[in-house]
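Q: Structure for this?
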Amino acid sequence: MPNLSDVTGRRILYGGDYNPEQWPEETWPEDIRLMKAAGVNSATLGVFSWSRLEPRPGVHDFAWLDRLMDLLHEAGIGVVLATPTASPPPWLGHLHPDTLPRDADGRTEWWGGRQHFSHSSTVYRRHAAAITEALAARYASHPALTLWHINNEYCTYDHGDEAATRFRRWLQDRYGTLDALNTAWGTAFWSQGYGDWAEVAPPRHAHYLRNPSQVLDFRRFTSDMLLECYTAERDIVRRHTPHIPVTTNFMPLWSGQDAWRWAEEEDVVSVDLYPDPRDPFGAQEGALVQDLTRSQARGPWMLMEQAAGAVNWRGVNHPKPRGLNRLWSLQAVARGADAVCYFQWRQSWQGAEKFHSGMVGHAGEHGRTHQEVVQLGADLARLGPHVAGGTVGAEIAVLHDWHAWWAADQEARPSTRVDHADVLRAWHRALWQGGLTTDFAHPEDDLTPYGVVVVPQLYALTDAAVDNLLAHVRGGGTLVCGFLTGVADMDDRIRPGGMDARLRELFGIRTLHEWWPLDADESADCDGFRGTLWSEEIEPDGTASETIPYQGGELDGLPAVLRKGSAWYLSTLPEPDALRDLLARVAADAGARPVLDALPADVEAVRRGDLLFLLHHGRDPVTVDVPGTHRELLTDTVVTDRVTLGRYGVAVLRDPEPAS
Amino acid sequence: MPNLSDVTGRRILYGGDYNPEQWPEETWPEDIRLMKAAGVNSATLGVFSWSRLEPRPGVHDFAWLDRLMDLLHEAGIGVVLATPTASPPPWLGHLHPDTLPRDADGRTEWWGGRQHFSHSSTVYRRHAAAITEALAARYASHPALTLWHINNEYCTYDHGDEAATRFRRWLQDRYGTLDALNTAWGTAFWSQGYGDWAEVAPPRHAHYLRNPSQVLDFRRFTSDMLLECYTAERDIVRRHTPHIPVTTNFMPLWSGQDAWRWAEEEDVVSVDLYPDPRDPFGAQEGALVQDLTRSQARGPWMLMEQAAGAVNWRGVNHPKPRGLNRLWSLQAVARGADAVCYFQWRQSWQGAEKFHSGMVGHAGEHGRTHQEVVQLGADLARLGPHVAGGTVGAEIAVLHDWHAWWAADQEARPSTRVDHADVLRAWHRALWQGGLTTDFAHPEDDLTPYGVVVVPQLYALTDAAVDNLLAHVRGGGTLVCGFLTGVADMDDRIRPGGMDARLRELFGIRTLHEWWPLDADESADCDGFRGTLWSEEIEPDGTASETIPYQGGELDGLPAVLRKGSAWYLSTLPEPDALRDLLARVAADAGARPVLDALPADVEAVRRGDLLFLLHHGRDPVTVDVPGTHRELLTDTVVTDRVTLGRYGVAVLRDPEPAS
Amino acid sequence: MPNLSDVTGRRILYGGDYNPEQWPEETWPEDIRLMKAAGVNSATLGVFSWSRLEPRPGVHDFAWLDRLMDLLHEAGIGVVLATPTASPPPWLGHLHPDTLPRDADGRTEWWGGRQHFSHSSTVYRRHAAAITEALAARYASHPALTLWHINNEYCTYDHGDEAATRFRRWLQDRYGTLDALNTAWGTAFWSQGYGDWAEVAPPRHAHYLRNPSQVLDFRRFTSDMLLECYTAERDIVRRHTPHIPVTTNFMPLWSGQDAWRWAEEEDVVSVDLYPDPRDPFGAQEGALVQDLTRSQARGPWMLMEQAAGAVNWRGVNHPKPRGLNRLWSLQAVARGADAVCYFQWRQSWQGAEKFHSGMVGHAGEHGRTHQEVVQLGADLARLGPHVAGGTVGAEIAVLHDWHAWWAADQEARPSTRVDHADVLRAWHRALWQGGLTTDFAHPEDDLTPYGVVVVPQLYALTDAAVDNLLAHVRGGGTLVCGFLTGVADMDDRIRPGGMDARLRELFGIRTLHEWWPLDADESADCDGFRGTLWSEEIEPDGTASETIPYQGGELDGLPAVLRKGSAWYLSTLPEPDALRDLLARVAADAGARPVLDALPADVEAVRRGDLLFLLHHGRDPVTVDVPGTHRELLTDTVVTDRVTLGRYGVAVLRDPEPAS
């Protein structure tokens, strides 16, 4: 299979979405000139061009795209060519209203925005296949073509009638019989027993709580339908260009796609990444998404979209302060990206995203943002030969699974304050703050590469996943596990005892009496720290090697944290510093060391290949101890024993051979 | 008519909803074993079993229920048998979409949850009657059958077309002519004059405010339609088993049912009660609902549902701390309950309520929650012979009326901060804190049993109700009346002067100039206390015996509180301590004494029959003075002059003959 | 054309909406008696009387209205006669469901409230024309008729199918070709190119952001459709009574109507005004609306609706404290009103607005509110001959444009905290607090009457408007301009450079690098004050005469405020005192003086004709220096050099000839 290195070679891809049909054609040569000056080597075309490419059903206009492809090729800029199927032309919805999605309330999602397509619509799929076929046929041998980009940010739900039909078919495939479905969904409760497949429907608006297993399966179904849309288009382009890799861009940590499953169907894993420039944890959010994407890619990955400055969809949209775009871009490279791209090259002057920044903003060529884009282009060109293709090593794996998330994130649960993604963020941030590099893994993945496995929260686990965790500990590995893990099976059926019995035994828990979720004004004092969000009334079985008790309150004296050998269980969420320190200690005990010791606060250190990236997320200069002599690649200077980083400063050191 | 004592005898019923069809049949003997060990003597079957009992239209499967009834009977456990009509099987909505309710926005409420039935659907009613008929015929003579439980928590609205048809018919019955309807609804305003019955519809989504009298009648209609559903099923079961009492379970203080009217149609009044274990006023909420339910029952009543631990529908669902389940259960007994039951026996492992606790929780037999259930079973068994059938006396009546609530709780009113139920809570809580036992009564009820009548707020009053209040005062009774009382008639037509003239005369009010509702950041200083929520610009007529003035602000010097003889009017809501003290003084003046004097804070005292219940709602031990010698029934010990209550402690004293 | 002075003569109109069909006819003589006693000389009839006037389609009942017209005429009270078309009878929606509007979600807006008419419905328009025709024919020569009031508070949107048809037709008129529409809407983005007019629709619910130019045009269309409804009825009444002026009442600062355009079609400009009595800036809100309405009227205007006391549609509805109704009414007169009217004469006793106060409230004749109404009637009668027809002069113009507002107020913009109306309020309030009287003007209006032009924010400007601003400055005028001005053209297309180039040149801005919107917890320190809401990264071109820099933060040293000659640009919103002082300084430099110097806080001074109004918005007495000798008209006394104003006090001084 082709892959990202076929595209990048020893370069870092640099560029972004390019939608020049928004401007008069006279603008295009100006774009090319600026791209070349900025070191741009990649442009993504056609993401939202369907109505331009097929203005009437079956009538194509490729001439403008021909000219663009040629123009870019002449300029030495490769093209990521998108199928335009994320936004059908108005004629499709008008001629075929059934191609429009319906939400759970029955509201139609009209055209006039984007993504107004039902993943389940046969008519939509046929038209999407046709435009994909035409596009692939036309550009299969165009020399500018480097990568296929299918659709864009797959993210739609549909509760309409055609979706209902496909949902039934999907359920028939999954369960075979209605009896099996009734068992899996627990329909004996609330008189929901289905006697005919025709009765089964998406979880539409209801008087009161909807069946959670039905909701869970509907999420699986949605991910699968979107994946069918993707693979159908992928297979078409692959038939025309077996040598050209294919991707579709994920939304970071979006709950709608089982990204582990999707990544298997991609040649290149790519992601869109938009931390809030004003979020004090923006860098950590980035690191999380980057680690997750790298783990999905199992190697270098593509940052498909980021913003050079502000986005337009938050309540208050802050620009990126001087240096931040460069810092966060190099952070992505440090964590495995071989492509740094943006939405979009030139900021729109009309339409719904005209306040979303571009590599060329409204301020134009002389705008600060563009000037920084130019500088970054030079940096990436310098780094490319050293870094492209390089791998990032990690001794720690964080487990994540979309199915567990879908099962946990439902109506009527113990605490709506427990947000699966936020718990993940809290744990990954603690590891980041401890200077520990982490991979992500699926709970059934091979865990032998990792000395330490961390489970922030996996509400639902398969038996195989439980086996996997047990084998990891039995094999000498360390496991740290947060609350609400192993509670349910994959049908969302509570395990006897409220938590998998083998896990309880693993941690030394006799009885999990009650969950004590904590409200916003509550916390749980523990010996040495405060717990937040959650606590538990646990009766230990006496086999634990170590416990940290709750202090005061209803749980006084009961274990907040249990360790039994190398297996840890945390029944609360320690406040950030405490979680960081605990994980640092656990990692150290397991021999997993920070990238650098004694890093100043705000400095992130990552090793990629034989390079050491130092990324400074603060504004005041700091000095970092890096014993030995190194070459700093961005400045092409030699540094000895220490390096000083200015505001948002980055150093990329060619590492001497590790001492150990 | 049969009643609750036919079921209880000299026992307290103890048990809960039992939905064993959720588990493999092997679980059932285990359930029986645990029930017996816990002293359970009642199980409610079939609440949500329709799709199991009638898997296809007209096809019945009773065999499993036969086995369960037999099993329970053999174990000596009585069965409360429910008609399963609160959750129709999927086939009903699928075959007959018109049986599904529509909300005011036109959204369908689909199956997949529960209560997805239109109360107005003739097809639904026909199917509900058929399954009720089949159930009643089959189990009429089963020896386990003790009580019929019709449907569950009736609570649905429907704005659809069949509801519109029935609404018109209901209005025709009520008004006879369109002229009368137009007059009652004040349709001369905003050009709403109806010229044809076909034009009249439920109050659906509108551009701006909807007609409040229409909304009021729609609420009456809804209560009546639900009641028709109830009585239709009741009449069926009664025909088969005239000797078996019938109930349906109320939701506490839910606004949708005129519970005074409903209670008349029940043999047993039952209620569901779920105070938040973390609510500092949870016990007072319980006391209110218990007093209200007892008053509706005019005698012993049934606590049909409570939670052994946490519920699942709040944002954060706290479990019950050790002892609280027992405390609140015994509080219900103290206030007249002869049945203490739960939703549900065994906590679900699947479905929408799997995080709602059970008498046997996920932690199982050895879980703390179940252990406390066992202990409570023993306590109830001990108390039963002494308490069952006993009555609770009260010298004070709090007046409440759903129609007044419905009229007050509308769009576009003086203050959305004035919540009818919260005002009721504030007044009842003040009486509770004063140690005063209260009944509830309807404003037209005979008030002669009560020395003191309290009206927290009755925005709308009939002329007969005004007569009743006047007669009460004329007869030497004391009346304490809160603001926004007697403002409107039962069509929601404002009384001349903004408040009934005879009430104004009763309290010594010449002119009610303006309402001054108070915002969240406002209060009204009065002589001796602060008023909250509301204030009024009143011109007294000089006949008051006593006034407490506002101090400062626009109302400086005007009366906040007026007393004329034994009639009190409060134009503001005094802060809690002030309201407690004021009501205590008024009660004392009227000769209504607290159950015990000088009770420690947090201790509740209630007399039932010849028993004195002392309930300690705090966690630190307290000592209560109880002069004389008593037998404490829970411990079977003798106590003299004082009794010490530990955390959440309860004492039930056999009272020596009252001194007076 | 007839105008307001034809109605008023040398009186101030005083009265209000009169809907006596709500009460038995016996009430009417009582109403007349009270009106006369209160000095009421105008009554508005028929605003919501359609179902009474036409109880069945085509069947009219005018007899009751005949009697009312006669009764009022006999009492010497003129009638403002309304077409009743704001609230169609139930039969219209019932017979013609297509006359009901649909919101963007597809929800029908049913009858039972008001304004349940689709502006686009041909059937509605036909019925509205018919009742208007019948009404006009009947009362054309009635001597009580003084003014026509068309419909009421036009404010409806419709996204239904007939609206879609008219929208397409409106767009065809505007753009001629689909190409032109595609260009104007920027449909090249997100694949929205329309290939057939039939595909174009209102901006209905969409998966993600809707096209902002489509939304903008839909707002224009909505204003135009409503205007068509208005002019159609106006033309009918005008045909019958060419001598009787016509109005429709605006909602103050409501965004739905282009009131500049509408005012051109009215003989009398009228407005409804409901500041919150508890809002500390209620008086400033009033002043803003009054200045805006006066500017639309280009002379005296009509206060069509205000409340004598509380309204009913806020969360908490406060009454007006003693004196406030008089104060705010006289403020309107000071700022140009020749009519002071209310909704409504007698407070409803039924229906959706029964808690909205009336000139005769629920407390009746002896209620405080009515007593104050009587006093105000006497005051107005006293002032009428001196003030009616008088003009208010202003040297400062504030520019406002609904199209700019519509373009700015969209989804996905830089900051949802920037509310166009609130920015306008902040600037007008600063001018008010500086004692500066202002007119409002459209950006393309002749600005030569004004020494100072203030642009709080005009996100979109036409080229002609930019020319106008430039010409103003070139002609020696002063311009003060807030941020987010001149950003877009009238299609909502961003101007090159992110702000009109000629404006940038005017202010000395080379590059507008980035917007830095400020979050609720942010501010921007500047030299001498704090900026709020917004800040900008500006590179000046070195031509500015004066700058005020940002201090600290990312923008340290960059200009917050630029002045180049007499053109000022503010890239942030200074906190209130700073904005007041800055504008006062700018005005003073331009020779625009406050009405009076050294006014006490809370005292407003306005000159109208040769009268000086002093309005005291505080509760503690203050003394105002007014050098010279004046006659105070309300008390008919002579005051020399100073006048003392009590709580909410007003003095109206006949001004000696101005010294300058």
